[in-house]
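Chain A, query sequence.
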Amino acid sequence: MPNESNVLDQLISRIDDETLRARLAQEVDLLRGSRRFGLVFDRHLPESVRLPEHPIRKGIRVALRDESSTETWIVDRFTDRTREVAVLSGEGGEHHISELVVVREFGERIYPGLRSLERIENGHADAPWHVVINGENFHALQALRSTHHEKVDLIYIDPPYNTGGKRSWLYNDRFVDSSDRARSSKWLSFMERRLNVAWHLLKPSGAIMVSIGDDEQHRLRMLMDQVFGAENCVNVITVEMSTTSGPKTVNAQQGTIVKNVEYVVIYRKSDEFDRVPHTPLLDSVDGWAPNYTMWLYPDGSVGALSDELLGAEDVRIDIERYGLLTRRGFSMKSMDKLLAVSDAAQRFIEENVDRIARTDRLPVSCRGQCPPVGKYITFQAENRSYILTTLPSGTEVQVMPLAMNYRWSDDHKSRYGRTVIRGDLWKGFFKDMARVDQEGGVPFNNGKKPRRLVEQLIRWANNAPDSIIVDFFGGSGTTTEAVMRLNREDGGSRQSILVTNNEVAISEASMLRSLGVHHGDPDWEARGVFENVCRPRISTVVTGTRPDGSMYSEGLPANVEMFDLTYLDPGLVRRGHEFESVAPLMWLEGGARGPRIGEVPDEGWALTDTYGVLFDIDVLSAFAAAATDAATSGKPAAVVFIITDSEAEYQHAVERLPVGIETVQLYEDYLSNYTINIAGGAR
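Chain A, predicted structure.
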């Protein structure tokens, strides 16, 4: 309803054209009705992707390969039977197919496949394979939505920060920089599409962690409120990524407040995340806490730590040697000085962390226990054990042994000593940043995140040994390396699925274009982040050998396979064809363990230790018998794919299989199972 006090309504009322006035008023009312408190932004045109390897065919949208124009056209026809010169729609004219490249928008149907590029088997045969996909991450996410719907424990991403500076980002093959007035709106559209799909990947107990800078942190939070729900915001971590030193010092000395931190925004899928056991992270603390003055004897009595220090001969010798003994004995106020000069005192502390203690307020659940003065007792409440005593003043207190915060820290260089549990301020990562460009044995300094940061985020959020972690802004491959190193550290079997692309840096892209080299050309692709950084990095850390043959490390016990995301031509697909390209997607859905069913067998069915495929419903009896034998022997398939267009045949097959096996119906035209469009159509 028009509002006389609203400027927009006033301006609309001045329009003479009655039809135009009514139409604008209607559109404004629609906008008002859909607007809610929160983030409001324009949803920009769907993004597009160039497909250099896709064949030029009639009816397909194309652009100029040399990027001399941003226009696109439809191929109307070819000039002759050789199909080498295409006639384009509108004023596109005639072009040799070598001058053209296929363009697909996100709203158009895409038929994805995976083409294996490299397999590195350096881990246990039964361990899950880490997967790296080189391709447009929106389309890769859509494929994962089909294979990993509500299967993912954690998502970590490091998207473009949209600073508007030299490290700008691509939207529809064009870099978005500070001159673009809609850059934040485009960035939000770009992120919203991907976050909506990410929501579907997460388990109810899952969470997503997003690294971000100052420029878009506030907008990102509001966007994630809309996608995940404001009630599912877990926290925003502030990470110390630099110090005021080097070039920043000049600006700081002139009064500029320089940026030293970045952020990690964390949202959960639902409150089931709170029931996942999280691992506290520990920061070291310098110096001795003077309130640790108690000594707990095995017989349940309480004494003074200072007396025990003097009773230890080697410690007493150092106390006297360094002039720390007074007429009243040893003062705990001198503890920092003693520890600085006495190895004996340091050893004494480390060997007795269970005996040294301080007092704290009595928890409500422990009231009324009346522990004796000069003694301590243990008490169980709220599924944990408490130590209680009564002071000479008559005050009941809780006793806190030093062992509760004297542990190995999670600092840049871990050390054994006093610690505090880390909160939402994560300090000291500027130390990791000093060498981050060399992590993984492959130089790269373009927005790389420290491996320790990713490792600690994963360890804090989910300590399940078999969790699945996805990163769809994979960049140089830090997340994959972090997951593999965590597995080596604690014997876990976590699996990483990383999606990156082969984007070329802005400066290099300009240089290559000036030389007549363009996207899709071998020289261009060789300089992309996947081929030049991510792929050699992951190969280096797993095998221990750099691409040039030099030794980097002893390697990591892990299996990893790298793929190209491919776009299949539905015009060439017939029943039973192109199975090789979609077989990796089935293998992924089956857990990416063990061998892959890569071709259609003569028997009409295939079965591994983790998944099976029934290609021909006529051989159901043999397949069901094999699946039953596997289940009886203790190795049931996790998932079985039944290929049939008939719902009745599918249900009949399900009834013949052992209870507890997940079943999936696939259409006989394999590509139809993984069709991708803007709505995210899965099967």
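The chain has a mean pLDDT of 89. Residues 296-402 form one domain.
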